[in-house]
Amino acid sequence: MWVASNITYLYIVLGGALIGLGLTAWQSIGVVIAGNLFWFLVGMVSVSGPASGTPSGVVMRAMFGVRGNRANVAVAGWATSVAYEAINVSVGALASFALLVEIGVTVTPLLKLAVVIVLAVVTLTISVYGHATIVRLSSFFTIALTACIVLLAIYVAPHVNVHAVAAGSHPPLLVAALIGVTVIASGPLSWNTASDYSRYLPGGTSAGAITWWVTLGGFIPSVVLGTLGVLAGTAIDMTNPQDSFATILPAWFYPVFLIVIVVGSITNNVLTAYSSGLGLQAMGVPWSRAITVLFDGAAGVALALYALFSPDFNTALENILALSVSLLGPSLTIYAVDIALRRNAYDGPSLHDESHTSPFWYHHGFKWSGIAALVIGTAVALACVNTNIFKGPVSNALGGADLSSLAGPIVAAVIYLAFNRRAETDANARTRRSPQSS
Fold it and tell me: Could you report the per-residue pLDDT of 237-294, keeping only the tens digit for each?
C-alpha cells in the first residue's frame, strides 16, 4: 500500500528541482536521501494504529486534548490533506493535458475543467469504498507502476550527465542543500495520518515490524523516484518535465509515461482523500465518511483549478511544500514523542470519549503542553524557512539557509518532552505521598 501510494511523479519533479538549485547530481541524491529519512517518523507513528484501533486524528487527542486537537486536525490534518489532494490532481491533470495534446486534441479551458473533475471522481470513488479496496488495488498498482518506472529509468540513463550544473546564479552549497532537504522532507512529513491505515492490523502486531515496513514502503520509492528526477534534471528542463521528457523518450513510450503520471497521482490521492474525510469526522463534523470525502474532494478540485491557472505552477508548488513543513514537522514529532512516553499504550474507547469526563479532556478540553509545543515549534520553523514568498528572520541571518525541517521538530519535541516528563514525575510523587487504596 505504501509503495503504491508513493510511486508518484511529484517526487521526480522535486528531484529535478534540486538540480535547478545549483547542486550537482551526487549532491542532489544526498539531499534526496537526507530529506526522506523523515519516513522513519511516519513508520513510528504508524504503531499507534493497531494499539488504539483508531485513526491518527483521534489518537492525537492524547497530545492536544479533545478540543485542542480539533484545531490541530483542522490545520495539520484536514487543510493539509486538501492541499495535497489539489497538488496531486494538478500533477495528474498536467500529464493528462500533455497526453491529449500528444493524441491531437486541442485542450480548451472547458476540457481542462472536465479532466480535473474526472480525476477527482475516480480518486473519490476509490476512497469512499475504503481501506479494503485501497489495499486490494495497491498490489496491482505497485507492479504496473514499478514496471513503467523501470522502463523510464532505462530510457533516461543514456542522457544522464552527472557532472552537469544548472546555468545561472545559485545560492551557496549549504544553503541550497538545506532548502532542498526541506522540500524533499515535505513528502514524508505530510503523512501524519499514518495510523489511519495501520489501525486495521491486529492489536498484537509487532511495533518494530510496522515501523520498518512503513518506513521502507515510503522511503524506497521516494528515494528511487527522487534520484530518477535528479538524473533526468541533468538532461532535460525540469521546469516543464511532462513536455521535456518527450525529447528523450521513444514515441511509443511517451504516452505510457504520461499515463503513469496520471495513475500515480490517483494512487497517492486515494489515501490522502481517505484521511481528509476522517479528519473532518475527528473535528466533530457529523457527516458520514462518504459525505466528508466528497466535500474534501470539491475543496481539492477548487484549489487544483486555482493552481493550474496560476502563472508559475512549479514555484507555487515548492512554496506550498516548504511552508507545510513548518507545521507538519512539529506535529509529527510531538506524535512520535507521545508514543514513546506512553510506550504506545492507547485506549481506543477512551480516545473516542469526547465528554467532560474523558481522560483526554485535560483542562477544559485542551492539553496546553501539546499546544505550546506545536505553536512554538511551528513559530521556530517559520523563523527558519526560506521560500520565494516568505523568508524567516533566522534564515535571513544565516544567508538564506533553511533549517525549518530540523529546528521546528527539535524544539517541539524538547518542549513536549520536558512538560510531560515533569507532569509524569509530579504524578508519581503524588502517588507516593497518598495512601494506596485497598
Answer: 887 777 888 889 999 999 988 888 888 788 777 777 777 777 777 777 777 767 777 7
CA diameter of the chain: 83
Looking at mean pLDDT, say which of 74-88, 219-233, 234-248 comes out highest: 219-233
Cβ(96)–Cβ(119) below 8 Å: yes
Nearest to 102 by CA among 224, 251, 227: 251
For residue 310, name the pLDDT band (cuts at 50, 70, 90). low
Hey, what's the cell of 134? 485501497
**Domains by residue range for the chain, with CATH:** 2-312 (1.10.4160.10)
C-alpha span between 281 and 5 (Å, rounded):
23
Q: Tell me the three cell numbers of residue 126.
A: 476509490
Q: Model pTM?
A: 0.83
Q: Within 10 A of 46 (CB to CB), how many other CB atoms are there?
A: 29
Rounded-to-integer distance, Cα 285 and Cα 44, Å:
28
Cα–Cα dist 99/107, whole Å? 10
Tell me the per-residue pLDDT of 12-23, one tens digit each, with 9 for 90 and over. 989 998 998 889
DSSP one-letter string for 133-195? HHHHHHHHHHHHHHHHHHHHHHHHGGG--TT---SS----HHHHHHHHHHHHHHHHHT-TTTH
For the chain, the residue count is 438
For 164-192, letters b (16+ CB in 10 Å) and e give: eebeeeebeeebbbbbbbbbbbbbbbbbb
3-state secondary structure of 315: helix
Spell out the residues 6+ positions from residue 257 whose beta carbon is closer than 8 angstroms to its own.
148, 152, 245, 249
- Distance of CA 234 to CAs 26, 34, 195, 250, Å? 11, 20, 38, 18
CB of 407 closer than 8 Å to CB of 384: yes
Q: How far apart are CA 165 and CA 162, in angstroms?
A: 9
